[in-house]
Amino acid sequence: MKKYNKQDQQWLATWAADCAERVLRLFEQAYPQDDRPRQAIAACRTWVRTGLFQMAAIRSASLAAHAAARAATANQAACFAARAAGQAVATAHVPQHAFGSAYYALKALAAADPAHAELNTTQERDWQAQQLPATLRPEFLKRVLVQKRGNRLLVKVQKENGF
Fold this sequence. Notes:
Blueprint: H1 6-30, H2 36-50, H3 55-71, H4 76-90, H5 97-112, H6 117-131, H7 137-143, E1 144-149, E2 152-157
Antiparallel strand pairs: 1-2
Helix pairs in contact: 1-2, 1-4, 1-5, 2-3, 2-4, 3-4, 4-5, 5-6
């Protein structure tokens, strides 16, 4: 597994929270009374700000956001947005979860507007890439892909040994 220093991990966590926050509206519009994904993003930002790592709090926030995603399976965009939040906070534990946050944010956008999925996800992936420091950008561009295959748009995370 690729090793990240503390500063890179904090950059990734901030970036993952930003990615999740950009699609959070898709969840909150469908489930306005459920704040679990928002709380997960807040827990991620708290970890970055304070540096205080409490595994129970991080795990709880991540699991709660993923439970919100499971409850939202009738609305794919909302489900993916909640998963983006769960992955963002998990970055405090494992840096690679940041790429999961970006991935699920792209999936949320594709599900929210299938007619414009290719344009929306391509533009969002470009935005995501530009938000990362130059030292972290190549890993993201290698890992999180948006590809057109026939009539299908694929958003995927490229996993290799050590990821």
